Amino acid sequence: MYEVKIIGTGSYAPSNVVTNDDIAQFVDTSDKWISDRTGIKERRISKDEDTSVLSTKAAKLALENANVNPKDIDLIILATATPDYFIPSTACIIQEELGAVNATCFDISAACTGFIYGVNIATQFIKTGQSKTALVIGAEVLSKIVDWDDRNTCILFGDGAGAAILQRSDEKGIISVYTGSDGSGGEHLECPAVPLNNKFSGEEKSNDNIVSMNGREIFKFATKIMPKCIDEVLKNTEYNLEDIKYIVPHQANTRIIEYVAKKLNIDLNKFYMNLDRYGNTSGGSIPIALDEMVQKGLLNKGDKIILVGFGGGLTFGAELIEWRI
Ligand code: ACO
C-alpha cells in the first residue's frame, strides 16, 4: 500500500457579495437574527458562473500551487449537490476545461460531507496503486436550488468551490479516515431530483427542485455526530486532541461549532471558521476553509489537522491529516 498526501489546494467564490441586509429586502428577517443564530454575515451568490466554472477556477489554482501539470492528473472527483447537468458529470466538464486528458472523472453526492468522502475515495485509489495524482473538488451553486422565499433556509447558503491535489507519497499525509451515513434521517434535508413522469406513470408530478430543511433536527444531528467523528478519527492512532493544531469543520453555523468545542472541551480558537463571509457552501465549505488557511500561512509542515463534516443524507465523516507541504 502507498501513502497519500495533499500537495496543493485552491479555492474560488463568485465576486457577488450578498449581505444579511440584502436578504432582509425580500424575506422577513434581519442582520441581527441571522448573525445571532448562525454567525453568517454575508455570502457569495453566483450571477452567471455554474458549478463547473467555480470548480475549474479552484482546480487551476490548486494545480498551480501543487506545481502539477493537468496531464498528470489521473482521477478527478467532484463532490456536489448542484451539478451543471445530470449527464455529463460535472467532473467530465472540468476535465475538458483543464485539459486533464488522462483522468477518470466522476461526481459524488454526499451533500456537505462530499469533500470528506471525496478525499477518502481518492485516498483508496492512491493507496492501492490505481491512481497516482488525484484532484478532489467540493463545489456548489446552491443558489440554484435555494427557495428564495423561505427565510428558514435562504439565509444559510452560499456558492463556492475548493480543491485539493492528493498524491502518492512515501510520507503519511492522510493518517486516518472515518465516514458513515444514516439514511433514516434523509427527510430532514431534501432537494428532489426530476420526478417520475413518463407515458405510463399516470398524473404528471410537479418538478420542484428546491431545498427544504428541518433546521432543529439537523442541529441536533450535527452536535451529536461531530464529536463522534472527531473521537473516531483519532481512535487507533498515536494522536489525541492535544496534538491537533486545527479542526476544520463544515461551515454551517457558529453555534454548532461552539457546542462541539464545549462538549469536547477544545479551545474554540482551534476551529477554523470563515462562515461569516461565505455562509454554508455545502461541499465547498471545508476545502474553501482549508485553502484559506494555507493562503494565510496558518499551516506548517508536520501540523496535524482534522477535517470534519456532516450533511444531508444524512452523511458524516472526518479525516486526520498531517500537513506535508
Ligand atoms: N429570520 C427571522 N426569523 C426566523 C428566520 C429568519 N431568517 N428563520 C426562522 N425564523 C423564526 C422561525 O420562524 C421561528 O419563529 P416562531 O417561533 O414564531 O415559529 C423562530 O425564528 C425560531 O426558529 P427555529 O427554527 O427554532 O430557530 P433556530 O434557533 O433553530 O435557528 C437555524 C434556525 C439557524 C436553521 C438552526 O436550526 C440551525 O442552525 N440548524 C442547523 C441547520 C444548518 O446549519 N443547516 C445548514 C444546512 S445543513 C448542512 O449543512 C448539512
UniProtKB/TrEMBL annotation:
Highest taxon above the source species: Bacteria
Catalytic site positions: 112, 250, 280
Localization in the cell: Cytoplasm
Domain remark text: The last Arg residue of the ACP-binding site is essential for the weak association between ACP/AcpP and FabH.
Provenance organism: Clostridium ganghwense
Name used for this protein in its record: Beta-ketoacyl-[acyl-carrier-protein] synthase III
Keywords noted in UniProt: Acyltransferase, Cytoplasm, Fatty acid biosynthesis, Fatty acid metabolism, Lipid biosynthesis, Lipid metabolism, Multifunctional enzyme, Transferase
Catalytic reactions on record: malonyl-[ACP] + acetyl-CoA + H(+) = 3-oxobutanoyl-[ACP] + CO2 + CoA
PANTHER family per the UniProt record, alphabetical: 3-OXOACYL-[ACYL-CARRIER-PROTEIN] SYNTHASE (PTHR43091), BETA-KETOACYL-[ACYL-CARRIER-PROTEIN] SYNTHASE III, CHLOROPLASTIC (PTHR43091:SF1)
Chain ranges of the Beta-ketoacyl-[acyl-carrier-protein] synthase III N-terminal domain: 106-183
Quaternary structure annotation from Swiss-Prot or TrEMBL: Homodimer.
Sequence segments annotated as region (ACP-binding): 251-255
Gene: fabH
Function: Catalyzes the condensation reaction of fatty acid synthesis by the addition to an acyl acceptor of two carbons from malonyl-ACP. Catalyzes the first condensation reaction which initiates fatty acid synthesis and may therefore play a role in governing the total rate of fatty acid production. Possesses both acetoacetyl-ACP synthase and acetyl transacylase activities. Its substrate specificity determines the biosynthesis of branched-chain and/or straight-chain of fatty acids.
Family: Belongs to the thiolase-like superfamily. FabH family.
Limits of the Beta-ketoacyl-[acyl-carrier-protein] synthase III C-terminal domain: 234-323
One Pfam family named in its UniProt record: ACP_syn_III_C
Catalytic activity, EC: 2.3.1.180
UniProt cross-references to InterPro entries, sorted A to Z: ACP_syn_III_C, ACP_syn_III_N, FabH, Thiolase-like
Annotated pathway: Lipid metabolism; fatty acid biosynthesis
